[in-house]
Amino acid sequence: MTEHVDHTGPGAAHAHRPHRHHYDAEMLSVEEARDRILSYFDRLPAVETALVDALGQVLAEELVAPFDIPPLTNSAMDGYAVVAADTAGASKTSPVELPVVGVIAAGRLPERPLTPGTVIRIMTGAPIPDGANAVVPFEDTDELERQKSGSVGSLSSISINAPAEPGDNIRAAGEDITAGTVVFGEGEIIGAAQIGVIASLGRAAVRAVRRPVVAIVSTGDELLEPGQEHEPGKIYNSNAYSVAAMVTRYGGVPKIMSIARDTVESLEAALEDALDGADLVVTSAGVSKGDYDVVKDVLSSKGEIALWSVRMRPAKPLAFGMLKRDDGVGVPHLGLPGNPVSAMVAFEQFGRPALRLMMGKVQAEKPSVEAVMDDAIHNYDGRRVYARVHAYQDAAGVYRARLAGNQSSGVLSSMAQANGLAICPDEIAMIDVGEIARVEMFDWPDDIF
Ligand code: AMP
Ligand code: MG
Fold first, then answer.
1. Which is deepest, 219, 322, 412, 416, by most CB within 10 Å?
2. How many domains are contained in the chain?
3. Segments of 61-194 assigned E as strands
4. 318 with 202, same domain?
5. Domain check: are 105 and 249 in the same one?
6. Residue 285 CA: which ligand 1 atom is closest?
7. How far is CA 278 from CA 61, 212, 237, 275, 355, in A?
8. Looking at the domain assignment, is residue 274 inside a domain?
């Protein structure tokens, strides 16, 4: 891969080999950067998805119940199907003894209707025989005493200790879902309960919006892969793994590519592989304005690239563009900063919404709480500060947050001590101790829906 691909759109003016870049003079707000990025994404197509793989995906069909659930009126208890009137006045001291004329197990159909003055032994979930209008649970009979004496198998009669009302312990057919009703509409997010309900409709797979495939390319001569022998002067690639984990968490499919070295050939080869089958290519490092030009040159030779300064801390430098596959299809590219915390924070702010859009989800903000700060957050240069904090509820149930360790953008361990990012707005110089900050929480479960 040596020839650059044709430019289209804003980059088309530079039809010669593009050694220049679209630098933006001004900083973008987080929202401006996000809006620009999102304008390049669409919802992905729907695919037939096995139920177990559909968790968190968006349903792309309307599901209509083909039958009643439950399909038949059935017993809610292990007990005896009776005519309620036959049990009138029954008590412990004057039980009503009735003949047992049959048994219905779950999954079997009644062999005969119930005639008044008799009972049929019935298991939970088994269909109620015609003629019966209540179930007396074992607890209200002398079943247990009879079991102890070993006489249940040959049971010919049972003593009932409590009166039953019509309808007692009976679940009506269609009580859960009636045949013909729309159970879930298009666009509904598939949670665990939805998966259960879909299974109860007899479906093993549904049409759901496809999961985005995110290729992750780490760049840098200094990087080793985890698992490789430690070498002096090198660091392990952590960005690919933290970003891959976030991709998985938000419902995408990460594809960690080989590390690209700081040479044209290596990076071109890595991007070539990455473009194959990816809905988004994420790179890390090499996109700061002062960086060695290889990354930027290669990226711009493969499509368009915009290098932005975003008004946020950490993660000011950000690249975004469209890379061209050999077949001409454009694939969005998000270039994260190299610093490990910056990479994560930028992916959260820009990668997460892109994934949500591709997955057909609404742009829900990160789940957040208002927390009283135990420590001050300083904003030195008018950028929005995302401070690593540990948020907790005090004895009164009030959310508070303390800074989680060293706030340098290279210190990843403080990210692991944190459970959220407290935000100091762009224009606020400080949030003081005792003042309130909004904290975007990392791992709140509603975030995936
Ligand atoms: P750069 O954007 O290339 O200037 O990188 C900024 C910092 O991030 C440097 O200290 C790099 O060593 C570090 N860095 C770059 N890529 C990674 C990575 N994949 N994993 C961990 N640290 C990285
Ligand atoms: Mg570098």
1. 219
2. 4
3. 63-64, 74-75, 79-82, 96-104, 119-122, 134-137, 157-160, 170-171, 182-184
4. no
5. no
6. 2
7. 25, 8, 21, 5, 12
8. yes
- CATH code for the domain in which residue 192 is found: 3.90.105.10
pTM for the complete prediction?
A: 0.90
Q: Are residues 196 and 338 in the same domain?
A: no
Residues 150 and 197 in one domain: no
**Nearest ligand to residue 316 Cα:** 1
The reply to whether 449 falls in a domain is no
CB atoms inside a 10 Å sphere around CB 287:
24
pLDDT band at 360 (very low <50, low <70, confident <90, very high): very high
- What torsion, rounded to 10 degrees, do the Cα atoms 131, 137, 138, 139 define? -150
Average pLDDT over residues 246-273: 96
Structural domain of 151: 74-171
Q: How much distance in Å is there from the Cα of 52 to the middle of ligand 1?
A: 37
- Locate the DSSP E strands across 30-168: 46-50, 63-64, 74-75, 79-82, 96-104, 119-122, 134-137, 157-160
- Could you give the CA distance from residue 240 to residue 261 in angstroms, rounded to a whole number? 14
Predicted confidence at residue 287, as pLDDT, reads: 82
Model confidence pLDDT, tens digit, residues 377-417: 999 999 999 999 999 999 999 999 999 999 999 999 999 99
Residues 290 and 260 in one domain: yes
The C-alpha atoms of residue 163 and residue 95 are separated, in whole angstroms, by 9
For ligand 2, the distance from its centroid to the CA atom of residue 325, given in whole angstroms, is 25
- Supply 209's token pair: 């919006």
